[in-house]
Amino acid sequence: MLDEVKRIILVLSGKGGVGKSTVSTQLALTLKESGFKVGLLDIDLCGPSVPHILNLEDQNVHQGPDGWVPVYMDSEQRLGVMSIGFLLKSRNDAVVWRGPKKTSMIKQFLEDVSWQELDYLIIDTPPGTSDEHITVMENLRNVPQCSAIIVTTPQQVAIEDVRKEITFCRKTGIPIFGIIENMSGYECPNCSECTNIFSSGGGESLAEISKITFLGKVPIDPRVGMLAGKGQAAVTELPDSTTSKVFIKLVKMLS
Ligand code: ADP
User: Fold this and answer.
1) How do the domains of the chain map onto residue ranges?
2) ipTM
3) Which of 11, 12, 22, 196 is the best mutation target for the ligand 1 pocket, counting ligand atoms within 8 Å of the beta carbon and taking the most?
4) Contact 79, 40 (CB under 8 A)
């Protein structure tokens, strides 16, 4: 039930492991901390990591009179979460489905979750451009308030895949809100010095070449990795970190 959602943000990446779920969850948490009402929909059917990152693994969704009721992070119900992970019996269960079954699950996620009124719905997608993406794009292409954020790491090999994501968005008519570069150098938690382990700036130069807004560089910060599994926001736990500043700026750009 998306008619009560003011704005939808798809979070995409060319590769797995680049920090897409970290960006989705930190964006959702920062929006919540900024006073917005937020939904986070995890459609990574084969590797749903949102329940783990937000420390909601033992939670279940249930059917209400208006559809599936999301799992809420807080008593004021400012951040609701829906993931295939809540429907699996155990964390180790695998979803071994062919395309049509995946398609119908995604359609149910888009149509049957009772989000109520939302300022933002963040959709965490699997890496690449698979059945899940095609279904989402087909269902959201005509939704005017929908756009995509692409997450990449700075290396050339990841950047190549981002080009494919850009092409995919342009072909399917979903506007790209911007590119965010994650794991952009290592930020020492003690002295804040940043060392470019892989390289830096690949996402930024691709954004420039492709005439896409560059949303910022999130460094590798072991403290950010440690927030995963606790459901904590960088903006409240690490307020002076570069990560926190990037997400605050991103929320300002979105609002
Ligand atoms: P994806 O969704 O792209 O597969 P994840 O968000 O699950 O990637 O991130 C992969 C791993 O990298 C996780 O263990 C996560 O905690 C860690 N990670 C992601 N971004 C950062 C970062 N900026 N600093 C430190 N660790 C990070």
Assistant:
1) 5-254
2) 0.99
3) 22
4) yes
